[in-house]
Amino acid sequence: MSPVHTLVLNNGKKIPIVGLGTWNSPPGVVAQAVKDAIDAGYRHIDCAHCYQNEHEVGEGINAKIAEGVIKREDIFVTSKLWNTHHEPMDVKPALQHTLKQLNLSYVDLYLIHWPFAYQKSDEIFPRDSNGKILHSRVDFVDTYRAMEYLVDDGLAKSIGVSNFNIQQLEYILKNARIQPVTNQIECHPYLLNKKLSEYCKSKNILITAYSPLGSPARPWVKSDDRVLLQEPKLLEIAKKHKKTPAQILIRFQMQLGNIVIPKSVTKERIISNFDVFDFTLNESDMNDLQNFGYVERICPMFEDTKHPDYPFNDEA
Ligand SMILES: NC(=O)C1=CN([C@@H]2O[C@H](COP(=O)(O)OP(=O)(O)OC[C@H]3O[C@@H](n4cnc5c(N)ncnc54)[C@H](OP(=O)(O)O)[C@@H]3O)[C@@H](O)[C@H]2O)C=CC1
Ligand SMILES: O=C1CO[C@H](CO)[C@@H](O)[C@@H]1O
């Protein structure tokens, strides 16, 4: 097995650069995907309560621990606090529920999934009788303080945030006792998030890039007929390096200095998406990949735009 390629978080802990995404990975399929990923060399799995498959993800991880392929400490497991559990008193029970689902005693990283809160509910998207999402106001610094206690308790080795904008990060940093180690955000050539990335870099907060392949399973948000994985310039770069377009997009994130979490439940893709350590994109490739122009946000959470903590009102 080749060495695990890692970056160092601002608390000195290591995080494997390439992780397996699990959103939209169906129960009945995802446990095998996790096992295939671990066999292929992945040592980082990105999960979330709202993906509703943590039980099966845990099955995959624990099967590989039981087989002796990995030990618990060899694998980096991330989960995320969902919007319905932002009240400080709900934070620890939410992680305890996730740990029970995963059948693990700690996560390596726990993130606030979004800065905005929904009303407490067992539903992922609680709605009123008109179908409108039931928002609530919880100061996310209060939520974050409850996250800090999870580190004290040893239930989460590191904590961080996801989908936070610069102002929201500044507010966290002003009040944090434990620095967030990462901001997990959408990042790919159609949405580079340059200002936010530069800000995070200046604060020693790593970017974890989600939807790095342009999330092709979300055609419903596309108002344009451009498909990232089929961009002519990307195909040209892939041909030149004898790599797949997906491998180029993953390598692109790595060379930006980001953690990257491509999702797949297809064994061949899981394997090939990890085969990204034996080539380098040159400066001109990197520039070309940063010149596609903004197309659109793949994960805009349109139903939440009126929430005062919605993060994307003044950034592209
Ligand atoms: N914090 C947040 O708010 C968010 C976090 N995330 C995280 O990031 C992960 C990745 O983002 P996601 O939105 O899933 O999108 P990705 O950009 O990772 O794309 C995943 C899709 O691409 C397909 N695919 C995978 N590999 C290849 C390949 N080599 N060639 C062609 N198609 C491929 C997959 O299909 P198949 O599985 O059928 O192979 C799947 O449909 C998520 O799974 C989740 O863990 C995502 C969105 C928001
Ligand atoms: O992580 C995520 C995956 O996609 C979901 C649906 O768009 C989002 O709600 C969530 O943030």
TrEMBL record:
Q: Which GO terms describe its molecular function?
A: oxidoreductase activity
The lineage's top-level taxon is: Eukaryota
Record carries keyword NADP: yes
Q: Pfam families annotated for this entry?
A: Aldo_ket_red
Annotated substrate binding sites: 113
Keywords recorded for this protein, A-Z: NADP, Oxidoreductase
Residues marked Lowers pKa of active site Tyr (site): 80
Domain NADP-dependent oxidoreductase, residue spans: 19-290
The answer on whether this UniProt entry bears the keyword Secreted reads: no
User: Which residues are named in the active-site annotation?
Assistant: 51
| Family label | Belongs to the aldo/keto reductase family.
Q: What is this protein called?
A: NADP-dependent oxidoreductase domain-containing protein
